Amino acid sequence: MVGGGPGSFIGPVHRMAAELDGRIRLVAGSFSRDLDRSRQAAAGYGVAEDRVYADVEAMIAGEAGRPDGIELVAVVTPNHLHFPVSKAALEAGLHVMSDKPAALSLDEALALKAVAYAAPGHYGLTYTYTGYPMVREARDLIASGRLGAVRKVVVEYSQGWLAQPIEQGGDKQASWRADPAQAGLGGCIADIGVHAFNIAEFVSGQRVARICPDLSRVVPGRTLDDDCNILLRFENGAPGVLVASQIATGDRNGLRLRVYGERGGLDWSHENPSVLVVNWLDQPTQVLHAAAGYLSASARASSRIPTGHPEGFIEAFANLYRDMADAILDGAAGSVPSIDEGVRGMTFVTRAVEAAGAGWVNLEGAPQ
Prior knowledge:
The protein is α/β, with parallel strands linked by helices. The chain has helices at 10-19, 35-45, 56-64, 82-91, 106-118, 133-143, 172-177, 180-183, 188-204, 297-301, 313-330, 339-354; strands at residues 2-3, 72-76, 95-98, 123-125, 150-158, 208-216, 227-234, 239-245, 254-261, 264-269, 275-280, 286-289, 361-362.
């Protein structure tokens, strides 16, 4: 692991998710730029002190000389280090699982794509919400054609933890997200808006063709956007709406997706992730539950315990790591998001920031 030092939220999440199914172990890392803090984190993770390194280059070199050296690198740093760490690991022949976004900029993402395509190792990106069983069920249900053609997509991701300028008080998680040098050109759009964009395309099976973005900096003194409202137009002509906010006071982690087809609509909420509601045009509403026998094969395979027993964020995260383990150990294709989704997400962030307030623009190619 690179990153995930003392005070990290996502580092322990990666560790728990990776180890949940017993196919991956955390054995080495460069957890912080401060070696003492890195050793402190290693003690908490149960990593031997002789496998704690000052940086990724030292880790790659040190592990290469061991018969039990690392095979997979988890990249859990702030955004500005995703590209150099992933590139170094891939070029060393290692596999990579990276936090999103794939890189700090679209140019970096495209450069990383070239590296990933040429490297022998697998590259995965933690678009975590694609790991939920009922999100995979929603995707399979739409792909089956039972709802008919997709007519509209509405996705919301609402948080309130940045409703105050806590980055100015030294909050670790807020500070780097508010700093363009570490977060990149997008704030809320790159932190959670890209998750909303990804899940909308993942479930609907449709790619966004055009966007009409409106990005705001609501909290005084903030450099990057903290509120986003974006109209979407999908390749099949269907309209969509994407709302992402980190200044929605009182909201926690309100991700919700609704997809409307010709014969019915789907409704999934992260705050009740084990349930998928299907509202049919001329039939009673169905409420589908995770791990039930009537679900699709991919949805059933994504649950570890019987229906009625709640699973959540760690388990969804672990599904991505299990997909990665399947790819590495068994050669299975899996469904872990790839560098292609990484480039797609950075394209969305870049175009949304650059075109904010300019009206409708193409997502790819020439703006108009």
